[in-house]
From TrEMBL:
Domain D-isomer specific 2-hydroxyacid dehydrogenase catalytic: 39-305
Family: Belongs to the D-isomer specific 2-hydroxyacid dehydrogenase family.
Protein known as: 2-hydroxyacid dehydrogenase
UniProt entry tagged with the keyword Membrane: no
Start and end residues of each D-isomer specific 2-hydroxyacid dehydrogenase NAD-binding domain: 100-273
Organism: Sphingomonas rustica
Domain of life: Bacteria
Zinc as UniProt keyword: no
Keywords: NAD, Oxidoreductase
Length: 305
């Protein structure tokens, strides 16, 4: 019996191969053998549009390694009868942890303090500016989905007051609702973005939102980099129109604006919200579970379409 061919992004191949190669034939998603694939496991951010799908005439499944699937044209996949899956829930806690860690790091100057100690400044008696209290803040969450709610639970334990914005008010949520980001930013001290990517959120957080956040405000982004007007953010930070930022995602990854690199009020991370041994393992397991279910004709564990 011929084994199904699965096209896998090269960066994921070493990790997924031990879980799946005993029953499937794995090929490089960017290689010529991918044409024979029935399933595709794209890399993070790899665009999968109609042209990519048409280049794999036997494609039946796109198993996204991540919760976000904005890089996949789901409409084009649906029109072609191709199923799409993702890996929700398993990364919720790690991304929420990082969002809160970034917030605390910005307010307390943790990254700046680390650099001071490493370069010998503390031992030399170099003055270190006081940080600010992170607990008890008014925090706005843009995108109160699974991850947003997990962030809110952590912040409640820090005596923070939570507000949120989204397409609509959510049933059973007691936090204050704001219909737009300008209203939300005006009401809080810290704005945490957990927004998906795509055209609907492109540069949604621009100069007007940052102006509303104000000179004491802090922006945290663990969603998608395209949701922030990056030049507007750099200008707001440079001119002191917001106080600081904690950023795990950027508009053109892995490129980061050079000005941000020299700003002590900014904490930077290399898009590692889900980057723990535990979560990345669970994500791979869920990708494999979706592939195996599809091949066996069972219901997909986490379908998108």
């Amino acid at each position: 019996m011929t084994r199904p061919t699965i096209a896998v992004n090269a960066a994921l191949m070493p990790r997924i191969a031990p879980l799946i190669e005993d029953r499937h034939t794995l090929v490089d998603a960017d290689g010529p053998d991918a044409r024979a694939a029935i399933a595709l496991v794209p890399g993070g951010g790899s665009a999968v549009d109609g042209a990519v799908m048409d280049a794999m005439p036997g494609l039946e499944l796109i198993a996204v390694h991540g919760v976000g699937y904005d890089s996949v044209d789901v409409g084009a996949a649906t029109a072609r009868g191709i199923r799409v899956t993702n890996t929700p829930d398993v990364l919720t806690d790690d991304v929420a942890d990082l969002a809160v860690a970034l917030m605390v790091s910005v307010y307390r100057g943790i990254a700046t303090g680390d650099r001071l100690v490493r370069r010998g400044g503390w031992a030399a008696g170099e003055a270190f500016p006081l940080g600010h209290r992170a607990s008890g803040r008014r925090v706005g969450i843009a995108g109160l989905g699974r991850i947003g709610k997990a962030i809110a639970r952590r912040l409640e334990a820090m005596d923070c007051t939570i507000a949120y914005s989204g397409r609509h008010r959510q049933e059973g949520v007691d936090h204050a609702y704001h219909p737009d980001l300008v209203s939300l930013a005006s009401a809080v001290e810290t704005l945490i973005l957990v927004l998906p990517g795509g055209a609907a959120t492109d540069r949604l957080v621009g100069a007007e939102v940052l102006e509303a956040l104000g000179p004491d405000g802090v922006l945290i982004n663990v969603g998608r980099g395209n949701a922030v007007d990056q030049p507007a953010l750099v200008a707001a930070l440079r001119e002191g129109r917001i106080a600081g930022a904690g950023l795990d995602v950027f508009a053109d990854e892995p490129d980061v604006p050079g000005e941000l690199l020299g700003m002590d009020q900014v904490v930077l991370q290399p898009h590692r919200g889900s980057a723990t041994v535990e979560t990345r393992g669970a994500m791979l397991d869920l990708v494999v579970a979706n592939i195996d279910a599809h091949v066996a004709g069972r219901a997909l564990p986490t379908p998108v379409n």
